[in-house]
Write a structure and sequence with these properties.
The chain is of the alpha+beta class and 215 residues long. It contains five helices and ten strands.
């Protein structure tokens, strides 16, 4: 018997996809944190405003991204959430883990948590990331890269390209405005990109954002 499909906080795909807005620049982490804040606390954060604030803090010696307008590592995501909790009085926290694919779907049912994963790939090995059930690959690049997304669904029966690709892993991904569909990856592509090792990041990087008290 196939595992039962799971979605984040037991919401439908359109209800989850509505949180996606197209990112500008290196802001995927800020989008993920803003969506987490909205889903857990119904508190709105603007990703671009947060990115600019973190830039200013970097120039003052408080490092929550590698450089202004550049990457945010998973552990820096944790620092940003803790900073927001302190400065905005928000009842949430974050923690860094090395996850595994077998237990990862279990986080989806917990209404107090949102899981953020970071995938990494070398030159000419970018993993395809498909929109909805289409064959449209939004990650068609030859460049090396890294990207953070919210895990939003696990459905072993989900497929793309007319059933030619089984794509069980679904994500809230800031690559499209006004979408009713999540972004999906095959199991092989996801596992390979998630376990890619990079100094300061490690393999299977997982940040859990958690509501600490009822809001």
């Amino acid at each position: 018997m196939s595992p039962t499909p799971k979605t984040l906080h037991m919401k439908s795909e359109p209800e989850l996809a509505i949180h996606q807005t197209r990112q500008v620049g290196n802001t995927c982490s800020f989008h993920a944190i803003a969506v987490s804040s909205r889903m857990l606390l119904n508190y709105t954060l603007d990703p671009m405003t947060l990115s600019e604030e973190v830039n200013r803090l970097w120039r003052r010696g408080r490092f929550m991204r590698v450089a202004p307008d550049w990457a945010v590592t998973p552990r820096m995501q944790v620092r940003i959430v803790r900073y927001l909790a302190q400065t905005h009085g928000l009842p949430f926290s974050a923690s860094y883990h090395h996850g595994d694919p077998q237990t990862l779907p279990e986080f989806l049912s917990d209404l107090t948590r949102v899981p953020i994963i970071t995938i990494i790939w070398p030159w000419r090995q970018a993993p395809p990331i498909y929109l909805g059930s289409t064959s449209l690959n939004f990650n068609d690049t030859r460049s090396a890269g890294a990207h953070s997304m919210i895990l939003a669904a696990y459905d072993p029966q989900h497929s793309n390209a007319g059933g030619q690709l089984i794509t069980p892993w679904g994500f809230i991904n800031p690559w499209k405005d006004n979408s009713t569909q999540l972004f999906w990856m095959t199991d092989e592509d996801f596992r390979r990109a998630w376990r890619f090792w990079l100094p300061g990041v490690g393999r299977n990087s997982l940040v859990i954002i958690q509501q600490t008290i009822e809001w």
